[in-house]
Write a structure and sequence with these properties.
Length: about 220
Amino acid sequence: MVERLRDGGIDIERDEVFTAVYAGADWMKRRGIERVAPFVTEDALEDLKDFELVGGTAGERSAVPDAVLIGDVGELWTHTLLNEAFRYVMDGAQLVALQVGRYWHGPTGVEVDAGAYVAALEYATGQMATVCGKPNAEFFEAAVRSLEPAERRNGGTPEPTAIPSIAMVGDDLWADIDGAQRAGLQGWLVRTGKFSEDTLASSGIRPERVLDSVADLC
């Protein structure tokens, strides 16, 4: 993530990035979960190194996990992989989702996102997933809290009243804009990625700002 942001011209350090994988790992640690079946990309496995990883996209199915972690797997999803996650949950593993996006703009255009697979597992198992990333308000609140050390180093003292002055910039009306607004932040929509004028008009969601591109922030 840091490399991609830097390639885009954004000067950023690793400790300035707060991801859904980080939030999910923190949630599981606080609940004493030790063994996890990750259904995430290979790059995301690095942020789960504090757990015993079994099955899923980690490979080795050596034991029954305490939790199933669903993230962005994209084209790696197969019936076999989904069925593996289903069986773990049926055997007692907790169902944890990093996000429940409906769709995203991928290499081939608009593609189904992780939310569809999470919904399938919820329907099949009867267990509702714990969502650690967007649009969960706790994710946005944790991201805001992560800003505090940097602000304090610059002599500031962040207060809860400063939250409405923070904006979430994204192309997802539900996860980015509506999720941020429900958490008390502003939601700024960009007309890139999966943006659609028709979807915006019919959604009932009203962003505080609509930008042509994140470049407009500069």
